[in-house]
Specification:
Radius of gyration: 24 Å
CATH topology of the largest domain: FAD/NAD(P)-binding domain
CATH superfamily of the largest domain: FAD/NAD(P)-binding domain
Number of strands: 22
Number of helices: 12
Structural class: alpha/beta
Distance between the termini: 71 Å
CATH class of the largest domain: Alpha Beta
Oligomer: single chain
Helix content: 25-40%
Strand content: 15-25%
Largest sheet: 7 strands, mixed
Number of domains: 3
CATH architecture of the largest domain: 3-Layer(bba) Sandwich
Length: about 475
């Protein structure tokens, strides 16, 4: 006889753990199933170890501005790479241990460390045991993509699953894929002394749709290491490493970092044994507001649905899936305003609707170049641009893109404002201190204000 449970959650990553937090409020008759190493992608191989590496690299790189500030001795500063990588791993382990706290108190009844496979819409086979669940949540995450054509060079290829395990760094590396991960790690490695070449078949970085922001980002980052954009990378194994060719350019490197995105972990689930319908990319067709797959009792959340592969989105989706798995009626929940941040220098951030999603005839674009921004100049980080998009008719904020210092903070302010339905006029009534980076946002708002169709006087004061 199959074991009967109210909810089965497949995957103990971020989405699965957030789903679990909702499920446990309503029932103790659940099972969490995970056949891989416990600990979230973010903590183990993603957001957290990468930010430690970036911090070390940025601290070391800061020495380049010392002479301008009258600080002597920069030329004698060195970085001990094995010690630095040990620091990355130590903090990584701390972050992983914190995520493990969510499963440490689960007994063998509630946590099954094995892989699950669908036998039917409501039944899973787990290490020989049959489990029938009223509701099932798929939260199996994703894995790095490595092209099949690269297999002859496999011994020289790294992904984010391996790079933070290195005790030392290679002398040279091609980073293929200039999305957020590639930019972040590529720049960090370059600042730590690795000879880096960044490659992408697109002519944009970090998925930027705004050409002004994209051009500045490419120019700023391209001053630190070469960027070969607009051509596909081809690899050829050599005695001394890998020859990487991109268009009419080529380079011999010790290692290649494959940063080509991640593939949803769906292959071993046995979805062919269910009534689940798949889209053209092989992803289950689901409602992003409920996380329900079709009209079934199966839900999907996190990276595995190949939509918004970000931790805070996985958290939102996991909560929605978990809530709906333990309630009779299926509820739709508002999506949060889109927010994406790349922690390179300058930071790159996108918020809300992007330029390729908007009709430029209907929007006012507020722009500020960071060259004259006092606080940025003091920090030695005044290379940047912020562009925000507002509805011309009423000034309502719609989105923004930026490559600038402290974009991680500015992006949050704008995301919160967009989610609250605020306008350019509303934000200009807010306090802005001096001198702070947020003054750049104030300047961009004024720039947008002058381009609105609104004719009445706009006063940055509120009468009592």
């Amino acid at each position: 006889m199959p074991r009967e449970v109210d909810v089965a959650i497949i995957g103990a990553g971020s989405a699965g753990l957030f789903a679990l937090s909702q499920v446990r409020r309503k029932t103790d008759n659940y099972v969490l199933i995970d056949g891989g190493e416990l600990g979230t992608t973010c903590a183990r191989v993603g957001c957290m170890p990468s930010k430690v590496l970036i911090q070390v690299a940025d601290d070391f790189y800061r020495r380049n501005i010392f002479e301008r500030e009258g600080i002597e001795g920069a030329e004698s500063i060195n970085v001990d790479i094995p010690e630095a990588m040990g620091h990355v791993q130590d903090l990584r382990d701390t972050f992983v241990d914190r995520t493990l706290g969510a499963t440490d108190n689960l007994d063998d009844t509630h946590l099954l460390q094995a892989y699950a496979r669908f036998v039917s819409d409501d039944t899973l086979e787990v290490d020989g045991e049959m489990i029938r669940a009223k509701k099932i949540i798929i939260a199996t995450g994703s894995s790095p993509v490595i092209p099949a054509a690269w297999q002859p060079c496999a011994e020289h290829i790294l992904t984010t699953d391996e790079i933070f395990e290195l005790e030392d760094l290679p002398t040279s590396m091609a980073v293929v894929g200039m999305g957020s991960i590639g930019l972040e790690i590529g720049q960090a490695l370059s600042r730590l002394g690795v000879e880096v070449t960044g490659i992408d078949q697109l002519t944009t970085v970090a998925k930027l749709a705004d050409p002004v922001v994209n051009d500045l980002a490419i120019d700023a980052i391209g001053k630190e290491f070469p960027l070969w954009l607009g051509a596909t990378a081809e690899l050829e194994k050599q005695d001394a490493g890998v020859k990487v060719s991109c268009g009419d350019q080529s380079i011999l490197v010790e290692k290649v970092l494959a940063s080509l995105g991640r593939r949803p972990n769906l292959a071993r689930l046995g979805l062919e044994n269910t009534s689940v319908k798949l889209d053209a990319q092989g992803i289950p067709v689901y409602d992003p507001l409920t996380m329900q797959i079709g009209d079934s009792a199966i839900f999907i959340a996190g990276d595995v649905n190949a939509d918004r592969a970000l931790l805070h989105e996985a958290g939102h989706e996991g909560r929605v899936a978990g809530y709906n798995a333990v309630h009779e009626s299926i509820a739709a929940f508002k999506r949060k305003t889109f927010l994406g941040i790349t922690f390179c220098d300058p930071n790159i951030a996108t918020v809300g609707a992007q330029l390729d999603e908007l009709d430029e005839a209907d929007i006012a674009i507020g722009e500020i170049q960071f060259a004259p921004v006092g606080r940025a100049l003091i920090m030695g980080k005044n290379r940047g641009v912020l562009r925000l998009y507002a509805n011309k008719a009423d000034g309502k904020l719609l989105g923004a893109a930026m490559a600038c210092v402290k974009a991680e903070n500015l992006a949050h302010l704008l995301a919160w404002s967009i989610q609250q339905g605020l306008s350019v006029q509303d934000l200009l009534k807010m306090p802005f201190y001096h001198p702070v980076i947020e003054e750049a946002l104030q300047a961009a708002l004024y720039n947008a204000l002058g381009k609105l169709d609104i004719k009445e006087e706009v006063v940055e004061l509120e009468k009592l």
